[in-house]
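Researcher: Go.
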Amino acid sequence: MTGTVDLLLTRTRLRGVLVRARARVRARKLLDTDGYYLEFVGPSGVGKTTLLDGIKNRVLGDWRYWENIAQLESEIRDDAIDGAMQWQLLYAKARTLEGWRLNGFRKTLLMRYSSWVALSDIKIFNSQSTGGFWLHEGLCQNFSEEINALPDEEFSRVMFGRALVFVMPRRSMTVVERIKRRDKEADDIVPHHIGLDEDGLMRVVEAEIANCEELARRAEAAGIPICRVFAEDDPAMQADSVLAFERRILTAGAKPAGMEEGR
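Model: Structure:
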């Protein structure tokens, strides 16, 4: 009988703990993110998705993420759609891929993915709903080379309303090793990594790092809020840096460029 009573008391205490925990979650009011667009940028395989997934339950803002893009289809007015900017970048991407040493199949796969990213960006910026987005795979991540090629005025137009978190390695080999590990585990391999040896991967990674560094330089010069974290640092340190950046963006008035004017 004593054992039964102890079990009931334990269950009651656990239930009380859970109820209080849920109450604390409901009491934590998330900040408004309307009009904000935070994007992770870094060489493919550096760990952007892992970092974002690890902080989602700690963010201050009421963000929407990659998985929420599909619902935007019903939120866009037909007469509001304008994708000229994204189409220009997609057209430039086709020219970029033409010079890559990939077969037509892999180029087509990359163009399909790039088209999806461009279309998602159109949906986000033409949606009439409220709430900001925080993405690990957005326009700046997938079109950095093409954005860098734009003159200053067009660059500012593309960067309108964005803030960027750069996830960068101190050593190119850090990313190469992570890509090789993914390849071994058959986990999320991108078409332009398939079949490359270590030297080939190094060339791809170093080119992507150069594009990201140039994008960071121009973004900073244009007044776009940016944050840098390093892939080799402790994950807790990375998370703290990104969350401090989010806090600054949402609470200190450091709005993405052009937000006050409306898009």
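Model: The domain at 31-257 is CATH 3.40.50.300 (Rossmann fold).
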